[in-house]
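Re: the 139-residue chain
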Amino acid sequence: MQKALFARAGDMQQMLLRLIQMEIDAANPDRAQALADLTSRFVELLCMHPYIGHLAQLMPALARKDTPACMAHIRAMLEALQTPWSPGACLPYDRAGLGRGASKDMLGGIVREMEESDEYAFLRENADFRALLAQYCAK
């Protein structure tokens, strides 16, 4: 039952991320932010990887081109990827036999996306953003 809950929670967080993107695409920033807030709470409540909650918050910040908010969420995302995550240590999954998540493997692809994607182009003018990416490229 716990493995099924973990799988369904993963599916739900992906659906929530898609809903956020749909609201961004439909130019509904308030709804996108409300869904991002909901996603962050969902991630925390069900002990999912913290990276997803930060990604949810980053999405509307990118759409608004809010550099300070983007920087805060990007830092939090990258830190979350560097921090060990053990879903099996959480109550809903403690008997599911889940090991540690392999989030460090994602870091290179995420940094590369930030370096190359048009969505992040406005941030590349920011010295702090460039320094942050350089810091994580070295890891």
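The two ends are 37 Å apart (CA to CA).
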